[in-house]
Amino acid sequence: MSRSIAYTSSPLLASRTPVWRSKFIVAAIALGFGALAARAAYIQVIANDFFQKQGEVRFVRTLELPANRGRILDRNGLILASSVPAPSIWAIPEDIERDPAQLQQLAKLLDMPLAELSKRLENEDKTFVWLKRQVDDSVAQEIMALKIKGVYQRKEYRRQYPEGEAAAHVVGFTNVEDIGQEGIELAFNKELAGHNGSRRVIKDRMGRVVEDVGEQIAPVDGPDLQLSVDSKVQFFAYQKLRDAVQLYQAKAGSVVVLDVVTGEVLALANYPSYSPMRRQNLSGAQLRNRALTDTFEPGSVMKPFTIGLGLETGRVTPQTLIDTGAGKFTITGSTISDSHPNGVLTVEGVIQKSSNIGAAKIAMQMQPREMWELFSQAGFGQKPQISFPGAVSGKLRPYKTWRPIEQATMSYGYGLSASLFQMARSYTVFSNDGQIIPLTMLKSSEPALGVQVLSARTAGQVRKMLQMAAGPGGTGQKAQTIGYSVGGKSGTAYKQVGKSYGSAGNRKYRGWFVGLAPIEKPRVIVAVMIDEPSAGQYYGGAVAAPVFSEVVQQTLRMMGVAPDVAVKPQIVAQAVEESF
């Protein structure tokens, strides 16, 4: 039974509601809607910058579109360095599904301990973290096949170096960010890098791209760079250098090969070396480009400059007689020695027999300023002007500080220092009719423009002496090459240990050989250095000259230079020992 309500009997219900109250309620509601509409208009139209920015922070991302780094090519177009796609794995820690079994599989594929992976993912406030950069495609596919929520991949590029250890010190390498760290990769980093593009997108919280925002900027790939280096000459030079260092149980070695017409560097090899693709646990000794960074007293390879100055100034002729006595010569209380008594020698004989005394006696006829000027013009004491990192200037003290004994020792390569690269370039004076030429690591087809240091006549006379030094009766007979005439100078220098050269039974040496071929119309210069040979041989003519011989022969053949010697040269088993 329903109970009726007597409205008329209730004073509250029976009273009449004032009209203003209903109007007030309606007005309040309308005012509220008006305020909301005004606020919405303010947020969306008038002052939407803050809220737009907050939305973009949460959902809009700028994706970098990486540019492909330019290739490095040898002079014949063979690849020395190139970039290949290599996916990188990243994650959003707050989205990761913490399935122990999946994380264990992921750690295994990333080749890292599970504890390290967990540490990278432990901060769930992060919206981005790299798990591993530049993995193999197959690994990336296996990781994506796990379908772990919050784990993604990104396209990047990784450098490959087909020539490996042989060209490592020339090409160098990049880091994981594709920035050059050594060699040509560092020297020409800006040119090779190109320009990355970009793409602005809206992503949902799952990391999926919803739509593009704004204009996409396409990446600009870096241009290719063609070097002067011949990869075949480089590999052969490295191989022969490595064999010599191992044979003579040496500490290290270097080879520089130059084209004396264009000034191009055809090869620059060092041993020990390293693989640019596997750089874990590398030492500074492996990374160091010794041909450019290491300086040492050059020893007897400086004698041709001393003789050249004597010839140029008219103080001596090739047939001038120099009395070297019984192999001992004293200057202001200090004694200079030859390894063997040579008696009276012609100036040609001083080079051929590598007489310290002969070189010193010729030098003492000159003013220190004259020697200093010639050495400076030949590039000693000056940093090589070449687009390559690490080149050093060596040491050549001002001539005003030279004492007589120092002037004498500088005539045969002590008291100054130079790199193998500087020595190789200095010999362009003799190969280019007295002109020293600039060198380049980039391919060039134009003859280099040089600076006159000696007359063409003097340069020709010194070339003949260098040919004698590398021939029968000379100190560099093992430099002889089948089919080609050669000339060059061997050198053996004591290594300074602390402030001395060590005791007689505990000395360390460097063996050098710098030469050119063919002798009448030189096309290449090859410089070889063997550091601390210790297998019973240490003279430059014994340990460095054979490497010179093999590299010269192979290089000239590859360059298509016609042989200029019809008969096999005489190669003696034991070269004449050179003086220091």
Blueprint (SSEs and pairs):
Elements: H1 11-14, H2 19-46, H3 49-59, E1 60-65, E2 72-73, E3 79-91, H4 100-109, H5 114-121, E4 129-132, H6 137-145, E5 151-160, H7 168-171, E6 173-174, E7 180-182, H8 183-187, H9 189-193, E8 197-203, E9 209-212, E10 225-226, H10 231-247, E11 252-259, E12 265-271, H11 284-287, H12 290-293, H13 303-312, E13 321-323, E14 328-331, E15 334-337, E16 344-346, H14 347-353, H15 356-363, H16 368-377, H17 404-410, H18 420-426, H19 428-431, E17 435-436, E18 451-452, H20 456-469, E19 487-494, E20 509-517, E21 524-531, H21 540-543, H22 545-558
Parallel strand pairs: 2-10
Antiparallel strand pairs: 1-8, 2-3, 3-4, 3-5, 6-7, 8-9, 11-12, 11-21, 13-16, 14-15, 17-18, 19-20, 20-21
Helix pairs in contact: 4-5, 10-22, 13-15, 13-20, 14-20, 15-17
Spell out the key features of this protein.
580 residues; alpha+beta; Penicillin-binding protein 2a (Domain 2); Beta-lactamase; 5-stranded mixed beta sheet; 5-stranded antiparallel beta sheet
**Termini separation:** 134 Å
- Which fold name corresponds to the CATH topology of the largest domain? Beta-lactamase
The count of strands amounts to 21
Total of helices? 22
**Fraction of residues in helices?**
25-40%
Specify the overall morphology: elongated
User: What does the main sheet amount to?
Assistant: 5 strands, mixed
Strand content: 15-25%
The H-level CATH homologous superfamily of the largest domain, spelled out, is DD-peptidase/beta-lactamase superfamily
The CATH class of the largest domain is identified as Alpha Beta
Category from helices, strands and their pairing: alpha+beta
